[in-house]
Structures are given as structure tokens and as C-alpha cells.
Amino acid sequence: MFANALASSRRIELIVTELRDFARYSPSEKMTAVDVNAVVKSAVILVTNMVQKHTDRFTVDYGTALPAVIGNSQCIEQVVLNLIHNACQSLPNRAKGVYVRTSFSAQSQTVQIEVRDEGVGIPEENLRRLGDPFFTSKRAIGGMGLGLWISFNIAHEHGGTLTFSSKLGEGASVVLAIPSADAPDGRNNHGGGFLRPAADLK
Known about the structure:
Heat Shock Protein 90; 5-stranded mixed sheet; two-stranded antiparallel sheet; 6 helices; 7 strands; 22% strand
């Protein structure tokens, strides 16, 4: 528990630092080969208590023989934590579930992390605004509208995408897709900072 608390506090420090410096250029963190399954396993451990408070149905399906991606494991884990947290908050009751799956798309040469929930869903008019800074439908419960903005920018920094789909009353699905380390040249070109406007991201 103490180790988890310490790890979480470090992530909070990272978020605060990113927000404080969002208006000026911030060089990329060191990118290394990352095992996506290991990142997801670490994130799942950190959210265990929160998941247990929201649902009795939580499963993780780890893809086999996934290629590595070039990235920052802590930042990718931050995205996974945020997506699982949002999924849990969307559930109307404990009978509804949250499902996480990792896989490799040979067509796009990307390693993908999907987080799917059986929650209330996202109104169509909100789907296009999910990457906008400070946009949130959870302000009444303390939401700041920054988690997804940071997540979109992390995906962009890794040369990837964050894609949402949803139907009201039927839940939502989000896929983080990151080019594999052995993808063709040019797929892993990274920009010059984590916090960019996310309005142009798809």
C-alpha cells in the first residue's frame, strides 16, 4: 500500500509539473523500448482498490507476443490509469463491467490498449470535445477536464492515437494505439513536447 501511494504521488507530481509548464516548450522525456503488457499490469495493480469500489466485473485480456513500443512507460501508464478511472466512474451500478484488452494490429503496425465499459455512454456532442483542455462533464464531482487532454497529448507524443466510440446507455470504448518499435521508418517520429493543443487529434 505504501509503495502504491508513493508511486501515485510521483504521478501527481508529474501531472502538476506538466500543467505548470504547459505554455512553454518542454523537451520529450527519454524514450525506451516498452513492454505494453507490463505497463498495463502495473496500472491494474494501482487501480485495484478503485475498481473494487465500482464494479464486480473487471477483466483484463493480455495479447500474446506483442512487439515493444518506443515510449515512456510512466506516461503510457498514466493514460491507462486515467482511462480505467473514467470507465469506472461511468458505471451506473456494480453489475456493469470494465474490460481492458491489449493487442497488436498488423494492418496499422500498432500495439493497442482498449478500455471498454458498460457505463452510461458519452453524448455525441461531447465526443469531439474530449481532447479539449478543461472540458469535463464531471465538474460537480471535482473533475478538472485535464486528464484526457494530457492523455491525448501523450498519445500524440508517442506517434499514436486515442480513439473514442460510444452509444448512450450502452457504454464506451477507447483505444490507445502506439506504433510498434519495428514499424516502418517515420511512424515513431516524436514532436517536441508533451502538452500540445489536442483539438486536431483524432
